[in-house]
């Protein structure tokens, strides 16, 4: 189980310069990739994208790659074409003005456009960037797994709370029915109405039918068991858990609508709170 939230950063230095890569991911319904790559390494985006799609299923992921080349000891390269044009011009000047002093080699090196920096080979930089990306991606997966473990523990704590509320409602039902019987008898006495056992039984049966939540409690138990099963399943589980949160909330609403006493209403409210807390955690799961 993995969260969609994570961060990783890796850096490397070599004689060609330095590379730094950052991967940030947050929750998103689908896999949404955003690249911010140094211009000389933009061609690596397809390779990065393929690896991310192979190993991540959901989340908004930002990939930032910075490259600083080391230009301190780059050799100078002569522009042969420009140098030839300068030599031709000097020959023409000497033909016209033989007495003119010829420029030195150092003078020519200082002439604009005669020299340029040698372009470094990007092959070793690209290889290093790919290796660095693999390290960063593995670190991101580990971070998402650690966060997923924490989310799983939080969800499990809410599941325990839901089970406690279900047990509470089941415990309350006999008490509720006995209390309702007493209430019916008291009201009958106040109104001076005689209730025989048959009529009292019929009234209680109608009340029981209205307040019967055994089916809802059973479904709540079933959904809790399925959530636990999903927490130990392989692969992405976020969408399935999101569906289960909807089902849990539906049963809690039905339980609330069937409530005839304050105690079961409070239990239904607590159930909704626990389910909403779980839903917020599930939104971060891959």
Automatic annotation (TrEMBL):
Belongs to the YicC/YloC family. Its cofactor is a divalent metal cation. Residues 181-230 form a coiled coil. Residues 1-151 form the Endoribonuclease YicC-like N-terminal domain. Residues 170-286 form the Endoribonuclease YicC-like C-terminal domain. It comes from Halotalea alkalilenta. The keyword Lipid biosynthesis does not apply. Keywords: Coiled coil, Endonuclease, Hydrolase, Nuclease. It comes from the Bacteria. This is YicC family protein. GO terms for molecular function: hydrolase activity; RNA endonuclease activity.
């Amino acid at each position: 189980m993995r969260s969609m939230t994570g961060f990783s950063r890796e850096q490397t230095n070599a004689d060609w310069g330095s590379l730094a890569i950052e991967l940030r991911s947050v929750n998103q319904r689908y896999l949404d990739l955003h690249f911010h790559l140094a211009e000389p390494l933009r061609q690596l985006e397809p390779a990065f994208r393929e690896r991310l799609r192979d190993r991540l299923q959901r989340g908004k992921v930002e990939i930032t790659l910075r490259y600083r080349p080391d230009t301190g000891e780059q050799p100078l390269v002569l522009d042969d074409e420009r140098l030839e044009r300068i030599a031709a011009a000097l020959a023409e000047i000497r033909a016209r003005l033989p007495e003119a002093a010829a420029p030195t080699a150092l003078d020519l090196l200082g002439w604009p456009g005669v020299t340029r920096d040698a372009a470094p080979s990007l092959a070793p930089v690209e290889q290093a960037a790919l290796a660095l990306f693999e390290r960063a991606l593995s670190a991101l997966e580990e971070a998402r797994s650690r966060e997923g473990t924490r989310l799983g523990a939080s969800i499990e704590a809410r599941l325990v709370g839901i089970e406690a509320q279900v047990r509470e409602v089941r415990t309350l039902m006999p008490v509720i029915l006995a209390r309702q019987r007493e209430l019916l008898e008291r009201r009958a006495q106040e109104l001076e109405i005689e209730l025989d056992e048959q009529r009292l039984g019929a009234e209680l049966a109608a009340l029981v039918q209205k307040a019967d939540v055994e089916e809802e409690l059973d479904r709540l138990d079933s959904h809790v068991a399925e959530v636990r099963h999903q927490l130990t399943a392989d692969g992405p589980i976020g969408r399935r858990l999101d569906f289960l949160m909807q089902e849990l909330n539906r049963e809690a609403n039905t339980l609330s609508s069937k409530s005839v006493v304050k105690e079961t209403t409070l239990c239904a409210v607590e159930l909704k709170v626990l389910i909403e807390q779980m839903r917020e955690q599930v939104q971060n799961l891959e």
